[in-house]
Amino acid sequence: MSGIGGMRAAGIVFVKECRESLRDRRVLINALLLGPLLGPLLFVLLLRLTITRQLTAAERPLAVAIIGAQRAPNLVAALEQQGLEVLPPVADPEDAVRAQRLALALRITPSYAADWRAGRPAQVEIIYDSSRRDTGASLQRLQVMLENYSRRIAAMRLMVRGLAPTLLAPVVAAGRDQATPQARGALLFAMLPYFLIFSALIGGMWLAIDSTAGERERASLEPLLINPVPRDRILLGKVLATGAFSLASLVLALLAFMVAGALMPADQLGISLRLGPAVIAVILPVMIPLVLLLVIGQVLATAFSRSAREAQTYLGLLQLVPVIPSVVLSILPIREQLWMYAVPLLGQQLTIMKLLRAEPLAPLNVALCALVTLLVAAAAFWAARRNYQTERLAITA
Amino acid sequence: MIEARELRKAFGATQAVDGVSFIARDGQITGLLGANGAGKTTTLRLLYTLMQPDAGQVLVDGLDAGREPLAVRRRLGVLPDARGLYRRLTARENIAYFAALQGLDAHAAAARIELLLDTLSMHDIADRRAEGFSQGERLKTALARALVHDPRNVLLDEPTNGLDVMATRSLREFLRGLAAEGRCVLFSTHVMQEVAALCDRIVIIGRGRVVADGTPDALRAQAHEQSLEEAFVKLIGTAVLEGMA
Lengths: 397, 245
Fold this sequence. Notes:
Distance between the termini of chain B: 34 Å
Strand order of the largest sheet of chain A: 2-1-3-4
Strand content of chain B: 15-25%
Oligomer: heterodimer
Order of helices and strands of chain B: EEEHEEHEHHHEHEHEEHHH
Structural class of chain B: alpha/beta
Radius of gyration of chain A: 31 Å
Number of strands of chain B: 10
Shape of chain B: globular
Largest sheet of chain A: 4 strands, mixed
Strand order of the largest sheet of chain B: 6-7-8-3-9-10
Distance between the termini of chain A: 34 Å
Number of strands of chain A: 4
């Protein structure tokens, strides 16, 4: 009877871990269903909500309570023409707005008619609550309506006096938005890198727990380690099995995002959310070193914990780590620099966001990102290997 | 043959094993008898290379466990105190996993597993998942798993723990069979009757040291007692009493 080669031993452990996990409903639901689908689902729901909200908000008539409408019939008629719906006046509009019974109120001051006739600026008051979410858009619409009316009257008055209405517009600004449709979509996709990393973490989590802390808790680790196989080969097999599930979860998440992107009413917004096979073909190799690192991190964390429950706590905390670069990237619009690609997690998130914005990738950056991530993964494996060599590892408390 | 030479192992300030030496010979059943906490499990863990001794040497069939741990493990079949199974694998799959790790090819493994299923009469549970196994069924599976590579030396840590009378009896029969095949069988226990019924040779351990070592008859003669139990009490005396305190 001769010894078995190291890779074969790792292969045996790999096959057994995969087979056992595929029979575990908890693993299947978490790693292959919840993990990959939670992100895309949440994403679609949120996006649909905001998009339909924006669309309907722009098309809906703007309902405004007008106090003193009889003082300015021309103004009210002009507003109505622009899509304003007049609500009956209320006694105390400030209170009504504060109590959220009313979104917007317009008060035409008592002196309006007198000022108008005298050619003085006639005042109207907009009563609103800026702390309410929808107010911004409605307020802006009302202001634009009022401005349009004001500009029209001013132009008429100038013409009556024999002056050119263009006098009122010495400078005209015209916006030229340089964002590509993909880039506008990428703003909405800012959370996508996190969802991808999240799915990879969820995919590996149960295997990582089961294969070390779980084995120790169920008292099967000691018999396993008595086999004539170096411990690092056993560790390698477990890491690879965890990685396989992690990767499977990631691939499923990418496919789900692909479907989700195609289902979005993106054309209506003039943005592109397509996450095609070509993009995925680049994202996957970018993510693989990171998946390796995350998986080794998970196995390392569980090898240090005394029970499966403790391992679960550690991995729960680990889950939060990739949120940090996501949040930083979405809040602070920092200019990307080369060093950022040398930070695992951050580098991958930057790369994926660039891909989604359809911007060219610098090969140097991508290579740096992969290299550093692999180096950190190797260091983590070395640490896990050391931990696996300790005598207390196998001992069930 | 398993030989322990002056083994020492400390955990922090506790000297768990304090100079243990003995020989377990081929074709014999050797019992490692001692109270709970006497150092039996640690001694066995040193023998089956899960732990490294602070000092001393372990020889298995003449191979130094410190220098060739993998070769030594191939010559050992071990039923440790921890004998958890993989619950989502069947008994057969549990055994086959260890067969593969021991380096058996699929064909040899299948034949060997059939044989063990026969000897341990566990055909009825062979293809059931280990999930709902009874103590006895679990022990059989763990035993088969430990012996799948046909080892010359068999180490068992408290093998009868948690077994009912019938299961204990058949386990004894099985161990006698192993010794009759010429294997070296070494097991630990804290149960007097176990060694009395089974052992060719008894090594009594108290507080990490070997207190007595010999055949049951020799031990009785040494203590000038008719019953082995009395001899046991006399031989370890205060060592065990303190160990149990």
